[in-house]
Amino acid sequence: MDKPDRLKGLEQEVLQFALDRDWNQFHSPKNLTMALSGEVGELIEHFQWLSQEQSGQLSEDKLAEVAAEMADVYIYLIRLSQELDVDLVDAAFAKIEVNKKKYPADRVRGSSRKYTEYDNDS
């Protein structure tokens, strides 16, 4: 199964999971955003006191825990997109185009500054 089909299947599975449990009544955009924020916090906890080097060298067990938290974030993001009727793939491509204009490669290559910090550089 190719990636677009897998993504569509995942979206259907996430929706069906909520429907089978009658959880749509709780899945308002506000509640889903709050749940998403909580899951992001749980993901952050895994990296909170690690150095940059350590954060890129997770043990197999730690990586499995991080992957599970990432999945929770992804699932809530999918549910939020379903409730707001937002096509995440389209939104991501549109945002990449915006970012290309804000961060032109020839001006920002190798820099971590925000676009507002280099905008006046000439």
Task: Describe the protein's architecture and organization.
- This protein has 122 residues and is mainly alpha-helical.
- It has two domains: 3-86, Helix Hairpins (Orthogonal Bundle), CATH 1.10.287.1080; 87-122, no CATH class.
- 71% of the residues lie in helices and 0% in strands.
- It has seven helices and no strands.
- The chain has helices at residues 3-20, 29-45, 52-55, 60-84, 88-102, 105-108, 115-118.
- The longest helix has 25 residues, at 60-84.
- The N and C termini lie far apart (49 Å).
- The model has no long low-confidence stretch (mean pLDDT 93).
Molecular shape: globular
How many distinct beta strands?
0
What fraction, in percent, of the residue positions are helical? over 70%
Radius of gyration, in Å, reads: 18 Å
The name of the CATH superfamily of the largest domain reads MazG-like
| CATH domain class of the largest domain | Mainly Alpha
The appropriate CATH architecture of the largest domain is: Orthogonal Bundle
Topology:
Layout: H1 3-20, H2 29-45, H3 52-55, H4 60-84, H5 88-102, H6 105-108, H7 115-118
Summarize the structure.
With 122 residues, the chain is mainly alpha-helical. It contains seven helices and no strands.
